[in-house]
Amino acid sequence: MSERQYEILNMDAVSMAAQIAGGNLSSLEAVNVYIDHINRINPLINCMVEDRFAAARQEAKEADLKLARGENAGRLFGVPITIKESFDIAGMKTTSGLPYRREMIMEADADVVAKLKKEGAIFLGKTNTPVLCFYQETDNKLYGRSNNPWNFKRTTGGSSGGEGTLIAAGGAAVGIGSDIGGSIRFPSHFNGVVGFKCGDRQVSQVGSYPLIEHPLQEKMLGIGAIAKSVRDAKLINEIIARPAPVLLSLKGFSVTLPFDNLLYPVDQATQKCLLEIKNYLEMQLEVADEPPPYYTDAALLWQLIMSMGADDVAALAFGDRPVKLISEYVKELFFKSSELHRYIIWVLIGATFFAPSPDKAAEVTNIIKTGEKTVSEYLSKRLLVLPVYHTAATRHGQVIRELFSIRRTFLRYMPFIAYSNTWGLPSLTVPVAEDEDGLPIGIQIISRVGNEEAIFKLGEMLEKHFRGYRRAPIGTKGYPRE
């Protein structure tokens, strides 16, 4: 790889847009470098499931001609990006990992895609997800399993796992994911990239499949960047979010970072990382070591909300076939003969089994209504710093066993992630460290809707002082680690 190619692959979207606008880099050169790189890495990590390389090259040529005429416009003009497979792009498939949708070509762009195109972005293709974006391991029967670029035996997370691994390997300037249960933050943490989940209904989900219709679930859904830098995550949010975030400084803000009061177990590397961040932040801001309100309730509330309407999700998974979860699981477990991955069948069995009664669902709705006011007031001028998970990237399948066990171990392992979803809060994940095996560790910065600018400011501080994004050097000596 030439020094020039190396430089392009490491550029974030803000830098690339500036280089293109200044005439120092053509859009076509950038697109070609990324396409060549994706062709090298995709057989190893299986991140991109459908490309539009020919169209991207043509759009890049047109962008360069526009630039020569002085017609370039848009904050991402000529910049090559990628997006999670669950978002519609006109002329491309949206399958959500379901074989029966393999020929479904979309006629219109998702709202998010349309906004990014309007800013001049060029889409290279779409990246892998689990079935219906419904679990946190990126594997399905249609496209197969995505692998972590730092160690192929480790998970890339999900459900935006293909996007996380592609950006970690330097496959695009920036990417887009969605998150209803850690689906941006798990991949960001496991792969060592920056990720931002927007807060309650701040970004349109129109053109995302499956459409989330239950009000409590829609509140939990967030859409945002999977990126190489905090400034890219901020830029993407400015483009796609509604309304525009209020501009704030960190003046008057305090931080809550539970350390002695974390209440849930984390491994030694994560604990060390949290202590270092706490010590650093105490020199900058007022830091409280306490659990935030409704902290211990979040995981159970999240599980109950996600189980609402589980029958509808099962119907989508089976398509025009009768829903027979138990027999389908047995068929897949022993004969590998189902079109559905065993993970989605197992998760749906659990979701339908634990689905709340109407009375319980009404109780959950009332708790959310009461709790969201308390949480919002607590985070009025406060930033919450939490781990993403109790460890760095696990072996494939371990996250599923921990989050979807009949022993309900999600109550132990899901609270850090669930807090942001349950209360509809924006959350930024920043890579800050590595464990003893060289696997990335990220942390979350969370606050209420309207405090996005403060979240990004603190994220930039941590990004600068700690690890930040580093491209996984796939194909070089010693990588990936095994």
Could you please describe the fold and organization of this structure?
It is a single chain. β12 (427-434) and β13 (440-446) form a beta hairpin. It is built from 19 helices and 13 strands. It is an alpha/beta fold and 482 residues long. It has one domain: Amidase signature (AS) domain (Amidase signature (AS) enzymes, Alpha-Beta Complex). The longest helix has 21 residues, at 358-378. The chain is 42% helix and 12% strand. Strands 1-3-2-6-8-7-12-13-11-9-10 form an eleven-stranded mixed sheet, sandwiched between helices. It has a two-stranded antiparallel ribbon with strand order 4-5.
Question: What secondary-structure arrangement, pairings included, does this model have?
Answer:
Blueprint: H1 3-10, H2 13-21, H3 27-45, E1 48-51, H4 53-68, E2 80-84, H5 111-118, E3 122-127, E4 139-140, E5 144-145, H6 161-168, E6 175-179, H7 185-191, E7 194-197, H8 215-220, E8 222-227, H9 230-240, E9 254-256, H10 268-281, E10 287-288, H11 298-307, H12 310-318, H13 325-335, H14 342-353, H15 358-378, E11 382-387, H16 398-403, H17 410-413, H18 415-422, E12 427-434, E13 440-446, H19 452-465
Summarize this structure as a short list of keywords or feature phrases.
13 strands; 11-stranded mixed beta sheet; 12% strand; Amidase signature (AS) enzymes; 42% helix; 19 helices
* Rg over alpha carbons: 21 Å
- Structural class call reads alpha/beta
Shape: globular
The strand count comes to 13
Q: What's the average pLDDT?
A: 96
CATH architecture: Alpha-Beta Complex
Write a brief caption for the model.
The protein has 19 helices and 13 strands. The protein is α/β, with parallel strands linked by helices and 482 residues long.
